[in-house]
Amino acid sequence: MAEGMKLNRRLRLGMVGGGPGAFIGAVHRTAARLDDRYELVAAALSSDAARSIAAAADLHIPRAYGSYAEMAKAEAALEDGIDAVAIVTPNYMHFPIAKAFLEAGIHVICDKPMTTTIEDAQELAALVERTGLIFGLTQTYTGYPMVRQAREMVLAGELGAIRMIQVEYAQDWLATPLEASGAKQADWRTDPARSGPGGCLGDIGTHAFHLACFTTGLTCEELAADVTTFVPGRRVDDNIQVMLRLSGGAKASLWASQIAVGNENSLTLRIYGAKGSLSWKQEDPNHLVYAPLQQQSRLITRGGAGAGASASRSTRIPSGHPEGYFEAFAQLYTDLAEQITARAEGRDAPPESLLVPGVQDGVGGVRFIDAVLRSARNRSAWTALDV
Amino acid sequence: MAEGMKLNRRLRLGMVGGGPGAFIGAVHRTAARLDDRYELVAAALSSDAARSIAAAADLHIPRAYGSYAEMAKAEAALEDGIDAVAIVTPNYMHFPIAKAFLEAGIHVICDKPMTTTIEDAQELAALVERTGLIFGLTQTYTGYPMVRQAREMVLAGELGAIRMIQVEYAQDWLATPLEASGAKQADWRTDPARSGPGGCLGDIGTHAFHLACFTTGLTCEELAADVTTFVPGRRVDDNIQVMLRLSGGAKASLWASQIAVGNENSLTLRIYGAKGSLSWKQEDPNHLVYAPLQQQSRLITRGGAGAGASASRSTRIPSGHPEGYFEAFAQLYTDLAEQITARAEGRDAPPESLLVPGVQDGVGGVRFIDAVLRSARNRSAWTALDV
Amino acid sequence: MAEGMKLNRRLRLGMVGGGPGAFIGAVHRTAARLDDRYELVAAALSSDAARSIAAAADLHIPRAYGSYAEMAKAEAALEDGIDAVAIVTPNYMHFPIAKAFLEAGIHVICDKPMTTTIEDAQELAALVERTGLIFGLTQTYTGYPMVRQAREMVLAGELGAIRMIQVEYAQDWLATPLEASGAKQADWRTDPARSGPGGCLGDIGTHAFHLACFTTGLTCEELAADVTTFVPGRRVDDNIQVMLRLSGGAKASLWASQIAVGNENSLTLRIYGAKGSLSWKQEDPNHLVYAPLQQQSRLITRGGAGAGASASRSTRIPSGHPEGYFEAFAQLYTDLAEQITARAEGRDAPPESLLVPGVQDGVGGVRFIDAVLRSARNRSAWTALDV
Amino acid sequence: MAEGMKLNRRLRLGMVGGGPGAFIGAVHRTAARLDDRYELVAAALSSDAARSIAAAADLHIPRAYGSYAEMAKAEAALEDGIDAVAIVTPNYMHFPIAKAFLEAGIHVICDKPMTTTIEDAQELAALVERTGLIFGLTQTYTGYPMVRQAREMVLAGELGAIRMIQVEYAQDWLATPLEASGAKQADWRTDPARSGPGGCLGDIGTHAFHLACFTTGLTCEELAADVTTFVPGRRVDDNIQVMLRLSGGAKASLWASQIAVGNENSLTLRIYGAKGSLSWKQEDPNHLVYAPLQQQSRLITRGGAGAGASASRSTRIPSGHPEGYFEAFAQLYTDLAEQITARAEGRDAPPESLLVPGVQDGVGGVRFIDAVLRSARNRSAWTALDV
After folding, report:
1. In CATH, what is the architecture of B11-141+332-358?
2. From 3.40.630.40, 3.20.20.80, 3.20.20.70, 3.40.50.720, which CATH number describes the D11-141+332-357 domain?
3. Which of residues 240-269 of D touch A (CB under 8 A)?
4. How far is A256 from chain B (nearest CA, A)?
5. Tens-digit pLDDT profile for residues D10-54
């Protein structure tokens, strides 16, 4: 396409993983569709070729492949090949698939945690840098308008210097040995060979960690962790407690658990600064409580008074009409669509679209997993995140 | 298509209204797209032909028309014409447009209130009966899983005989004379010529009324209403208070207001029976509070313990991952897709898909508007809903 | 006592009613004791003389009487007789007892509703005026700091002109025919001979009505009511719905119910003005939500930022340490102690102490009961409150 | 008094500390009075004799002393001397005063933390054992009915084996260097000489720690802590993070902070077991959320369905009429009155009255403070609580 021409079409998306029985694949498809910026035209939905083709037909996806390698090669060769691929497999496959598509010159949208080893994460980061391709990491919760509002307020100094962060992600779906029943989601997520070394740590702890960093712009200098497996026979952790020391003298406590009975998907974030605090709950995502020092607490709503530019940009309907998880996820897709389109049209992407996490966030998540496990093995000693 | 063949494609949808500056048109488009059962292929987005065509191009809609009449005629003649049309214009246009498409043999998905007069409503009902076509009315809130859960529980007798209902719909966006500023949404919604005789009454009062009837299966026998316009110069009501007597001896209080400062879209429903109660809030739609008589109150979540068939059917992701307004709206579209597809394939629609409100609900809403206004004019006398 | 001398002692309090099995008598005793302004020195706790004396001994009350008449006479004659009497009997006895003590020159603290007829209420009002004695009516909820804060804000104009009030008082303890079981509280409260003509209406409806008037300073001009007895065999109402037209063009909806399953003592008040709104819940009494027009909602706490003089005066401990029902009740006693002490010392009472409801509030409550019942008998016609 | 005789009077209480400007003294007085089991007859309210006597006169306390030593000696010698003394001074004075009264044969009710050193704590414990006197420690929050309900449920096994506890106590009143302004409460609480070595740790961290142990019956085996002083110039900590390993394999995270802007007195407890969880918030103390595994969450209210014996015993009014901080505090006084009366009457105290914390709880609190500070000084190493 000639430099400066307007890309007057939906982007062409491919998908690897996300066949029958999967959870996150369907979420990605809905998210990609929601704002109408993509059409899903190619897929390797399953590692079984026949199942892959049948599933694609059910989903009205025109081009079905039996393997991601074949797909990367074929799509790269097509005049109207895919602009980007969504990788929605179990964790251990993220790396080879992302590598294959990046090497084929195709932008990548990848689920988290990005890889199962630091080495793989660094190799991907290097590859992204070398190819200059766009790499989006679906840390879903950064797509919520009120999370972006929090970030905007913190970076604007409205809370003063950050002192203390409380972040937690509590679920209960693994309070029993569900994996022993053969449940597909429980099975691979508790299998270190497919999930990576972290259980709850990798699955949701990384979300909590990323959220704390994303909203405050702070980085973790060292951490001390206690890692527990409460359910007998489980091969990975199901509860982690972490104390963190962040840049600028801030402290944080992080808790992630999949055995916390009574919690469905309770990700909550509280940020305390010298001049104010913010509090947000994923299960009530359209609200943000803002407490300025020695003043009344206020309720910021997605589209209400005081919602800033980043919240407005990621909201679709008036406040009071709740948006939810799909819309947050869709925001990441839409931001990436902005980036990909801008690239195709030879212009800079709008700055707001760059909020979507990228390959360095992926590296950070894998380093977090690694540091937590090292600290836990070392009697919870303070442990720096490897660079 | 031959009887009994599987309709192996997305449905073809048309849209009338919903051009630039509109609110609900974009919601319909997103809702139709969310579950991937439709593709939007034809539209008359504006009553101005040039704007209609330009807007359609922006939205990648292949067939644009300058008028709904032209569109109905042309689409009916096409081999691959639209299966259904979505009508998202100001209220006063619902009737002629719905009539035109029904007469052209095309299924209709219509926003509410259905018409601005009882006569028009009845004519549409007769037309739907005569043509046998599918007519869906987008009383959005019936698409929420927890609203359907409430209905399922009430109809199963879990609350015992219903005694008292409290339903209210409070907003504040018209607390000031916003229409005087030229704001498009405020302008037509406060103009009786375009909105119909009810202001707040028609716009949101009908939702509250429908919700109470939908969840309980009760009908209104008579009502006593006080109707107020608080904002000076406003041409329609902005606050209504209604006492209702329902079938079976139940009572209800209904309040709708667009001047209730501090409320964004606060639709709440509480149902009290002899054996228990239910409470639901639209702004926290994934939860339903159930209080059995002399027992502890319980929290029913969208996909959690105790959520029944109708909730499960209308849920997409695990509990704790909030679904919202778009997903509720999408559910109506998906249910209608089930109905339309079943019709095309010559089979009965799944019973659950029939929960989407239809033309008789539309008649009921218009009758409610009419009875409230008659009662108010008659010093709040008890007034029966005209049959 | 010589004019101007400081009354350097606790006030001497008497009590009529409140013997074994009573509910509100013990509350009055605790409330009187809480701020240490009273000592309870005389009582006629029961209409049975022997039980009265035995109960007084159990409570360490030095002077016990067999009848209120005897007590009024004897105490009036004592040098150190009681300063005030608390009347905590079933409603039908309030009038003769209050009359006896007023005629004996003793200040009165009376439970609500004040009397069972308008005539009695007016006679008491005349007697209070004639004697110049202090008469406190324990509309408990006016003792809550956040209720007084609401009143202060409304009267200061912070909400602009009041437009709409939603007040409700929902309980469920009479959802079944509890009176048939012989439960003492249910028995007399559902017996018109002892409770007066209103059931739920008199018991809690009067609280809701008074709260709306107290916080806004508005009066009711006319009302339209629907009164229901849901529980078969019950002799009084157990659910009332009222639409009200208030001074200054404001409207209100009031609901009181004792059959609303899942509600314990859910008194809630929402006040909507042209410039803002307030919302308060008795079950979370230390908080008040304030929503200024087109600004973020704020949370006002009992002792936090923005709490004004009337809240500060009625708070004992720092915010976050919850105060409750006893403390609200105690505030009325303490305010009355201020009034009584000031009278004894020959000075004006502090203006803030005059917030405690008096005999005219009692007359208003009885008129409200009467008007609701007249409207209900007259097919919910708009009915003025008799003067 | 002869063995077996009924103690037919209020208990005689003395108080040391709690003069003008104090906070907790007035709370103790109100708490002691609330249930009418005590009369306050003697006091050394201030270390300044003249102020002590003047303050006692204002409070209608008949016997005023200039020093606690004088008071202990004099009261012990009186026929009608005090039954018990309440110690409400700054922390560093708890020990000598408690010692003096115990040695004088007088029961002690002491504020927390009990002492400022482990040695003092142990000496008090030995003295209590030797004298056989009653020693109550006012860990206020154990007086709340729903806290006792939680304990009852956990000990009855309703949650199964406890896995994880989250307890936190967040305030914001020391978010600025308030002590520099001369505010009396801030001044002594941030002065190690008067407060002891812990700041936030001793003041509120001990409450959080005790609450976790009290409700679960678990003990702490080791802990790892990070202790921070965020406000420049402050002499004690104002934020502590602790990871705990408890008996039976349970883990806990504890956070206490006095710089958490937006928090007034936010003590919250969540207990997760293999079969269920409980959640309680001090600022909404009348409710307890109970989530049984794979069932709907339930709301337990103070006097509602499912509230057990220990909650019923510590509740005064029907559910929905909120009780608060004073009532919780009063419960400790009332339980101690039961113990003291039983002792005087020569019988065993009712088992339920023994729930009030005692001298061993005091020792435990001081050990917790010590262990947290040792861990913090040792780079957060796991540290056992000294026995």
Report:
1. 3-Layer(aba) Sandwich (3.40)
2. 3.40.50.720
3. 241, 243, 245, 251, 253, 255, 257, 259-263
4. 15
5. 999 999 999 987 889 999 999 999 999 999 999 999 988 899 999
